[in-house]
Amino acid sequence: MTNLPGLDAIIEITYLIATALFILALKWLSSPTTARRGVFAGELGMLLAIAGTLLHHGLEYKWIVIGLVLGTIIGVPLGEVAMTAVPQRTALSHAFGALCVTLVGTTEFYLRTPDVPRFMMGVLSLEVILGSLTFTGSLMAAGKLQEVLPQRPITYKGQNIVNLGLLGVAIVVAGMLVAHPEKVQLFPLIVGIPLLFGVMMIIPIGGADMPTVISLLNSYAGLSAAAMGFVLDSKLLIIAGALDGASGLILSINMSKAMNRSFTNVLFGAFGQQQTAVAGKQESRPGRSATPEEAAAILAAANKVVIVPGYGMAVAQAQHKVRELYDALTKQGVDVKFGIHPVAGRMPGHMNVLLAEADIPYDKLLDMDEINGDFPQTDVALVIGANDVTNPAARTDASSPIFGMPILDVDKARTVMVIKRSMGAGFAGIENPLYYLDKTLMLFGDAKSFVGSIVRELGGGHE
Amino acid sequence: MKLDLLTSLYVFMLAAFIGFEVIRRVSPLLHTPLMSLTNALDAIAVVGAILLAGEYHAHGAMLAKTLGTIAIVAATSNIVGGFLITDRMLKMFKASGPKKP
Predict the structure, then answer these.
(1) How far does B3 lie from chain A, in Å, by closest CA?
(2) Same domain for A344 and A226
(3) A228 contacts in B (CB within 8 Å)?
(4) Which of A267, A301, A323 is the last residue of a domain?
(5) Total count of domains within chain A
(6) Do A326 and A378 lie in a common domain?
(7) Do A180 and A327 belong to one domain?
């Protein structure tokens, strides 16, 4: 980098400014009041970096422009999907990012071979392996989330051995390429095997594990981009990739903690299915149930209500009805808050987006750690479409498969109401003792229509 | 060359630390927009794809143009879609009425 001629210096400076803007973008994202400024900073940085790149001497623009235009045409509808579809959109964008990285890495290899330095070959292998496994893995995840693929986990004996074996072979081949970069015929293997691995990795994963998987794929996508930065000697790309990788890693750790999985468990993608949970004693013990009228009366008499939404609420598309309930109760002077478990949606933070879309103020959406101290002073905890994340057995019953998982302590509220279709066990097939407590009232029915009936009783709603 | 590599490693390490510190402060409230924003930023890989598709290559020009262009399409759709959806999400986050100081 000695004696930069003028143009190159200008290009480098645009990259430098873009880097600063990227970091600011993430910094401003820390609070909802500055977050949109963060997006603007990111856009500006991106624009600068692309403009700077286009200044490079001797570029032929035809294909660049075609690519940019086509990408925009595909990108706009992807930016306009419904909020419930954000998880699959995110998975798809991880796939696109990984595709870009893999294609660039592959091309760089064939352009540079046979004289690729050892270290370069190492990072290049890392780039291509991470990129291609993230590509197919993310496509699979998107397919499962979009429900074009079966959501049910598919497991077979020796699955982990097969998967780790595949990854192992890819790494060995990469090692051989580092030792002999001129063995061009080996290269397709470090693309092909990880492509297969990506598919195999996601096959055993069920819907409830998606938040962890998406975060992990996010991290992989970031790391592969950082590796690409090493190959191209682009500091900007290294930094953007490192930021993305760090973000994905933090979210993966959060999610794995919230799911009570060890971190190594997550790192190796072995999202073990402990779902063989004894779904025994299904005999119907009596739970107390209540009608919408009774529920409305209790809610109206309360001072403090905490609503605990789960993915079931989103599936039932009940968030707008829940907003009406929030409005009706607030109008009567009831203090209503929402307690959000980290894995309440299909990706980190998803539930907050769904509730914000329904116009519920964000300062009423409280994280598990923030809300848990409030439950003992809460008159009514209303659980809508959530199950395992409210299961007190996670705190008390060492034999429970979810023992140790952090939960929302709804059982500490004075009264608990649970809207549920039936008494059946939850997603993981684990019985929830919450439903049999004396203070618990079961509200049987579809979340949307049941909440709607309560709202009508309270004299609110738009009907 | 060797020195450049080392510099790159330093850059990576520092960026990773900054990433951890900055992102740890992002409220769980905004974790979904966080992921879509970092995803858009990550698509800065388009820079590498642009150079591949646009630069002159003595050999392998066909490969570089084809794969480079596809890579541009993939990255650009992430940039456009990522920023759009992040902003759409953030627009929805509103504080509760004028009661708040």
Answers:
(1) 11
(2) no
(3) 45, 48
(4) A267
(5) 2
(6) yes
(7) no
Query: Taking phi first (over 0 means left), then psi (-120 to 50 degrees means alpha), and beta for anything else, what does residue A459 get?
Result: left
Q: What value does the CA radius of gyration of chain A take, rounded to a whole number of Å? A: 25
Interface test with A, best of B55, B69, B77 (most A CBs within 10 A): B77
Which of B2, B9, B47, B100 is the mutation pick for testing A, counting most A CBs within 10 A?
Answer: B47
Same domain, A304 and A404: yes
| Residue A181 included in any domain | yes
Residues in chain B with CB shorter than 8 Å from the CB of A215 are 35
Would the CB atoms of B38 and A222 count as touching at under 8 Å? Answer: yes
What pTM did the predictor assign?
A: 0.90
With b for 16 or more beta-carbon neighbours within 10 A and e for fewer, the B24-62 pattern comes to eebbbbbbbbbbbbbbbbbbbbbbbbbbbbbbeeeeeee
B-chain residue closest to A95, CA distance: B74
User: How much is the ipTM here?
Assistant: 0.93
Q: Which amino acid is at A164?
A: L
User: For chain A (length 463 residues), average pLDDT per consecutive 10?
Assistant: 71 95 95 94 96 91 95 95 93 96 94 85 94 96 89 76 89 92 90 94 80 91 95 93 94 87 61 44 66 91 93 87 93 93 89 93 93 94 89 85 87 92 64 87 90 87 49
Helix (H) or strand (E) holding A418: strand A415-420
Cβ separation A230–B91 shorter than 8 A: no
Q: Is the domain of A198 the same as that of A329? A: no
Note whether A96 and A237 are same-domain residues.
yes
Same domain, A373 and A417: yes
- In chain A, the residue whose alpha carbon lies closest to the alpha carbon of B6 is A230
**Tokens representing residue A169 in the block:** 């072979």
Catalytic positions of A: 388
Same domain, A323 and A242: no
Parallel, antiparallel, or unpaired: how do β-strands A440-444 and A335-340 relate? unpaired
CB nearest to B15's CB, from A238, A347, A365? A238
Q: Which helix (H) or strand (E) holds A442?
A: strand A440-444
Q: Is residue A304 part of a domain?
A: yes
Q: Is residue A377 part of a domain?
A: yes
| CB atoms B32 and A215 under 8 Å | no
Nearest to A97 among B42, B52, B67 (CB): B42
In a domain, A30, yes or no: no
Domain residue limits at A427: 292-457
